[in-house]
Design a protein that fits this description.
The complex is a heterodimer of chains A (about 110) and B (about 120). Chain A is mainly beta. In chain A, about 0% of the residues lie in helices and about 45% in strands. Classes of the chains: A mainly beta (about 110), B mainly beta (about 120).
């Protein structure tokens, strides 16, 4: 079965750029989606199909995908960006989530 | 406003059954595939099952195949998850989620999520 690997945690200073990676075999050939989840809340889609932002998501959120790694980039990080982030793809009619990355804004 | 509202969670004994519902509003329900995603306490997201817009195609995670059944009633704008032979490891918050683009399950993001309903399997 297809596996996605994310770092358990990423820290970023307030106002700096955070990068969260999602590794998978030839993930560049798949559409990658990213979700933000704050404690006690449902996940929210922040990036779909590698690099597209849903309406209402700040331009500070961007995504890229190539080779074996997809990356979620959060520019000018704010305290409100502190959350868990999950990447997700489809493989053989099965949705697969990464294990999640806890983003801490220092 | 596009909205999903889950119900039906609760406490059930191991080996028992439960049916979850997800009421949809604010969009043409039959035009979109739907999924169930769960999250065990303190753990990450796990996809459970998906169904096409027409209901003609269904997909399951190996962990629930043969025990859970996904279905939908497009006349009632409602998604269901029938859960049988429940195990302690099925304890989780269950979310329903809407496919971002269309009726065929298989590549879309989940653009709308419900608030979740808690299922606890314990004696």
């Amino acid at each position: 079965s297809y596996e996605l690997t994310q770092p358990l945690s990423v820290s970023v200073a307030l106002g700096q750029t955070a990068r969260i990676t999602c590794g998978g075999n030839n993930i560049g050939s798949k559409n990658v989606h990213w979700y933000q989840q704050k404690p006690g809340q449902a996940p929210v889609l922040v990036i779909y199909r590698d690099s597209n932002r849903p309406s209402g998501i700040p331009e500070r959120f961007s995504g890229s995908n190539s080779g074996n790694t997809a990356t979620l980039t959060i520019s000018r990080a704010q305290a409100g960006d502190e959350a868990d982030y999950y990447c997700q793809v489809w493989d053989s009619s099965t949705a697969v989530f990464g294990g999640g990355t806890k983003l801490t804004v220092l | 406003e596009v909205q999903l509202l889950e119900s039906g969670g609760g406490l059930v004994q191991p080996g028992g059954s439960l049916r979850l519902s997800c009421a949809a509003s604010g969009f043409t329900f039959s035009s979109y595939a739907m999924s169930w995603v769960r999250q065990a306490p303190g753990k990450g997201l796990e996809w459970v099952s998906a169904i096409s817009g027409s209901g003609g195609s269904t997909y399951y995670a190996d962990s629930v195949k043969g025990r859970f059944t996904i279905s939908r009633d497009n006349s009632k704008n409602t998604l269901y998850l029938q859960m049988n032979s429940l195990r302690a490891e099925d304890t989780a918050v269950y979310y329903c989620a809407k496919a971002e683009m269309g009726a065929v399950a298989g590549d879309d993001a989940f653009d709308i999520w419900g608030q979740g309903t808690m299922v606890t399997v314990s004696s």
